[in-house]
Amino acid sequence: MAASMSAQDKLALIYENLHEKLKEEIIEDVIIKQNRPLKIYWGTATTGRPHCGYFVPMVKIAHFLRAGCTVKLLLADIHGFLDNLKAPIELVKYRAEYYRFIITSLLKSLNVSIDRLEVVLGSSYQLSAGYTMDLYRLSSLVTEHDSKKAGAEVVKQVDNPTLSGLLYPLMQILDEQYLDVDAQFGGVDQRKIFTLATESMPKINYKVRAHLMNPMVPGLSGGKMSASDPDSKIDLLDPPTIIEKKLKKAHCAPREVEGNGIIGFVEYVLLPVDGLKSGGKGKFIVERRNAEDGDALAYDDIAKLKEDYLADKLTPQLLKPAIIKALQDLLQPIQAEYDASAEWQEIANQAYPPPEVKKKDKKTKDRGTKFPGAKGRVEAKPDGHVEGIAQDQVNLGTGAAEAMENLDIQPQAPP
Known about the structure:
This protein is an alpha/beta fold. The protein has helices at 7-15, 24-33, 55-66, 77-82, 92-109, 129-139, 144-150, 164-178, 191-200, 240-249, 261-278, 302-310, 316-340, 342-351, 391-394, 400-406; strands spanning 20-22, 39-45, 70-76, 117-121, 183-187, 210-214, 284-286, 297-299, 379-380, 386-387.
């Protein structure tokens, strides 16, 4: 498809639905003047299980591939470890492999060729002597303040952060050089890292790259979609019943478009995905609840959908069932591939082992100190006598004669 596209068509597809572009003249020079495939990379730290929010960057990566770009997918295993130990070092390699399985399956489900996709493991080059020396060079030029500021929206923020969080942005900057790309793609939450890259790369005699940014799509609970917040996201392997349950609970206030994750999912996933599959303009169909209400609502323009939602013509009660069906259909081929792959299933168990079920400690019922034999009330000694606060009630004496007398047992005469 890319061979038949003009340079302007390629650029339009590359820029479609982006939130912001930095140094786009670099991209235009490659596409128009140099007339060669754009080399671009997108990285993801291999931490929590990928969720449906990953469709947002995958749609853009599918656009890049359709436009003839060479896309390098960085599985940033070391970044995952550095980010406040989000990925324990023992699980890093398994999680990276799990990400490879699920992301390639996700891209194939979008009806796009992955021939120009290259999957790269961060640790395959980030432990080299050259990379390490460049990291030292960069760390001697970037201040602690600037590095912390750059990673503020990406690195997990804690009260007493470790130094690893300061290395994270610097490594992401260096990755542009070591992956040999023209541009880096990411969410708008990474803008400060991209800006720092533009400022810092010339200082260590490396060229500046272009940066492309996706918008941040709200999660199901209204905030950022996060793998660490189960209520904000849907796992790519969640069964249909769980998908339905989560979407029914999702934040979707009537007549509210801003911060509405359900509408954001239509705009940045469902409409463009349908376009990728059909080869034309994407459509989203909303069935009426009752036949007498009229024909189904069909949208190929997100502006019209938002207009109807603000006017309450399209309600949450109509929108949610349509989203549920569309998402279940979207995930079906990914889940079918997972079910058919014993290797993938084994990797999933190694990457995300089920939590150990802790047995509850059996508690001894406390009967107090009022019953005979209660601890602290009476205690038998080796010679047979007892001690304690109730010893007068049970003590029979220290010898046989005294005990018999206390029990009022009369000695028997010998026969």
